[in-house]
Specification:
The protein is mainly beta. The protein is about 5% helix and about 50% strand. It is built from one helix and eleven strands, in the order E-E-E-E-E-E-E-E-E-H-E-E. It starts with a strand and ends with a strand. The mean pLDDT is about 95.
Length: about 130
């Protein structure tokens, strides 16, 4: 019943843009912390941005605010990550994740969200940025 499906990845030149989508099938009448993670070869999976569905509040990590924008379309149950001014170091597998969340501060405040705290994951979509 629970399913997250990412799309929108691909290859782009440095300075270009991509918009990732996450089609979410989640139980209704709940609030969720939803997040985008990325993982490059040899590195741990890191949180990119988070969004709390109860308020629409967002958080950004690793100095990505200003280049990346996380948003949602509640009507279509879709989470987005708009990525602009892409750099080669942005190359990674990008994952959509979700967890039930009753407190917004646990989602959009405090330290970077930890991957093990998210129970629902998509399969990922590859983003490759070339020079």
């Amino acid at each position: 019943q629970v399913q997250l499906v990412e799309s929108g990845g691909g290859s782009v030149q440095a300075g270009g843009s991509l918009r990732l989508s996450c089609a979410a099938s989640l139980p209704t009448y709940r609030s969720y912390c939803m997040a985008w993670f990325r993982q490059a070869p040899g590195k741990e999976r890191e949180g990119v941005a988070a969004l709390y569905t109860g308020t629409g509040g967002t958080a950004y990590f690793d100095s990505l605010k200003g280049r990346f924008t996380i948003s949602q379309d509640n009507a279509n149950n879709t989470l987005y990550l708009q990525m602009n001014s892409l750099k080669p170091e942005d190359t990674a597998m990008y994952y959509c994740a979700a967890r039930p969340q009753t407190n917004y501060w646990a989602c959009t405040l405090g330290p970077r969200p930890a991957a093990p705290s998210f129970g629902y994951w998509g399969q990922g979509t590859q983003v490759t940025v070339s020079s």
